[in-house]
Specification:
By secondary structure, this protein is mainly α. It has 23 helices and no strands. The two termini are 27 Å apart. The relative contact order is 0.08.
């Protein structure tokens, strides 16, 4: 039965690919080429990085740190994906009523959760491991073992997260499932935050004058204690042992990993078959209702027209009730406080400037994460009920506009508050803070316009769990579109800053500033209007397939 469930999942994936190739062959081929190009580009970048590590004679410690941070990367975003697949699956009622052993269902769901959680890993992690293997010059038989190494590596964080969720579920019960998921999200976020704070002392980077060496090789002759004692160390040891033809270390490390993964898998199955059943799943409580007056006199009714205001209020209420989506949106906020924790004992002016630069990067990262998560999933979160919106006496552009405004207000508003907090706490000059606010607002508008428009062009209304709200093509195109906009924004800011330094006369500086603002507004309008218009047209021609 277990093999049958895996075969069904495999066939559903193949059918999805075949349907995409038949319905949109040109777009599918183009996005496939872009995805392959991205894989090669990331792999080449990591290969050059590992070659640099070879030159500094710090390859071993670099490999250990790489596997450690990749493990943290998988753990940081694992809770929503694993929980949605393992605990929120809509087909449990069918599976548990079929003549299938509960442990077979749980075992298949664990593999499904691993695949779902590792989708984001394919863009960054797999090219990094392949580049590391190429730089280490592993033998031909090592390349045959590399897929098994990657499989075990992606299994480990998914199983750790699944075991934690099942233990939390045993403590809270199915009626408090959302509380259990929220607790696990908070624990994971705190672990990642504290890890970054502790690991920062081992980073081989020191500030200095322009042109001075930023790397101190003596700092990375050894990996950090966390990277040395974490389970990721054995994966690094396996790859290094293959390169050195050290069969003793290879066998020992492989045995440890196999025992660890098998033990976690068995524990999840034994615990899952006791906690997960059709009766328990039916007991899941959404956490009560949220009372609100729907008379149209709220703040949204004063700011926007009635149809758009009603849709915005509906989406915000949905966001408050969706623990999966809300936890994905709020978890990156913990990273914002990492720079403040790193400099808690140093209040010098130099450290204040470094903290502000770090907060700018953290704010940009949080803005990118929130806009990509919320805007790309804003259409798919409706599920089958989106058909009601399409058939209602409400224009399609109003539906997309409400999604766009809700995403922009939430993600852009969060980034604005973080910017103002850093500016006040660190006494940032008004002009600098104003420029950052302008960039934050325009970036939020553009990325949300891109995300909502692309998710409407590539809609996915039929999904089994909240982790599948966005189609694969939507994710790929959304990533490339966002990267293109951020690259152009960086070019505009960089050129404007360079010209600002070159022309010291006040006569030219207002012209430089005006051209930079105009260019930023132009690319923001293009990135917003074109995807939303394409999404509106696509929804008008959409044929409900199921």
């Amino acid at each position: 039965m277990f093999r049958l469930l895996i075969w069904v999942r495999w066939r559903s994936g193949l059918n999805l690919v075949q349907n995409s190739l038949r319905s949109r062959p040109v777009i599918a081929a183009g996005l496939s080429v872009l995805g392959f190009a991205l894989f090669l580009a990331v792999g080449l970048g990591f290969w050059l990085f590992f070659q640099f590590a070879h030159q500094l004679n710090v390859f071993r410690s670099t490999v250990e740190q790489m596997f450690y941070f990749l493990l943290l990367f998988l753990l940081a975003g694992a809770v929503p994906f694993v929980a949605s697949t393992l605990l929120h699956s809509a087909d449990y009622l069918l599976l548990f009523s079929a003549p299938i052993a509960p442990r077979a269902v749980v075992a298949a769901k664990l593999l499904d959760a691993t695949v779902t959680n590792s989708l984001q890993f394919t863009v960054l992690g797999i090219p990094a491991i392949v580049a590391c293997a190429a730089s280490a010059q592993i033998p031909w038989w090592g390349w045959l073992l590399l897929p098994l190494l990657i499989l075990l590596f992606v299994l480990l964080p998914a199983l750790l997260t699944a075991l934690g969720l099942l233990l939390a579920l045993a403590m809270f019960g199915m009626r408090r499932l959302r509380s259990a998921v929220g607790l696990m999200n908070a624990v994971m976020a705190v672990i990642v935050c504290l890890t970054i704070v502790l690991e920062a002392h081992y980073l081989p980077i020191r500030t200095g004058t322009l042109g001075a060496s930023l790397f101190e090789p003596s700092m990375i002759q050894r990996s950090s204690p966390a990277a040395h004692y974490a389970p990721s160390y054995f994966f690094a040891e396996i790859l290094l042992a293959m390169a050195a033809r050290d069969f003793g270390s290879l066998a020992r490390s492989f045995a440890i990993i196999l025992i660890l993964v098998a033990g976690l898998y068995a524990a999840c199955i034994l615990l899952g078959e006791r906690l997960l059943s059709a009766a328990n799943v039916a007991e899941e409580n959404d956490g009560g209702t949220i009372g609100a007056k729907d008379d149209g006199t709220g703040i949204w009714g004063k700011l926007f027209a009635s149809p758009i205001a009603a849709l915005i209020r509906k989406d915000f209420r949905y966001l408050r009730r969706d623990s999966m989506l809300l936890s994905q949106m709020t978890m990156p906020l913990i990273l914002y406080f990492v720079p403040f924790l790193l400099a808690a004992n140093d209040t010098s002016l130099k450290m204040r400037d470094e903290i502000y630069a770090a907060t700018v990067m953290m704010t940009g990262f949080i803005l990118f994460m929130q806009t990509s998560i919320l805007s790309l999933s804003s259409i798919g979160l409706e599920g089958r009920s989106f058909w009601i919106l399409l058939t209602s006496p409400n224009a399609r552009r109003n539906v997309l506009m409400a999604k766009f405004l809700m995403s922009t207000i939430f993600s852009g508003g969060t980034a604005v508050l973080l910017t103002l907090f850093a500016a006040i706490m660190l006494s940032v000059p008004f002009e600098r803070a104003l420029i950052q606010l302008g960039l934050v607002i325009t970036t939020a508008i553009a990325l949300c316009g891109l995300g909502v428009g692309i998710s409407a062009v590539f809609p996915r209304f039929i999904y089994e769990n909240p982790a599948h709200r966005v189609s694969a093509w939507g994710l790929i195109l959304g990533f490339f579109g966002s990267m293109a906009y951020l690259f152009l924004s960086g070019v505009i800011v960089g050129v404007a800053y360079y010209l600002w330094l070159q022309f010291e006369l006040e006569t030219y500086r207002p012209l430089i500033l005006g051209m930079a603002i105009a260019s930023q507004l132009v690319i923001t309008i293009i990135a917003t209007v074109i995807p939303l218009s394409a999404g509106t047209k696509s929804l008008g021609e959409y044929q409900w397939e199921h």
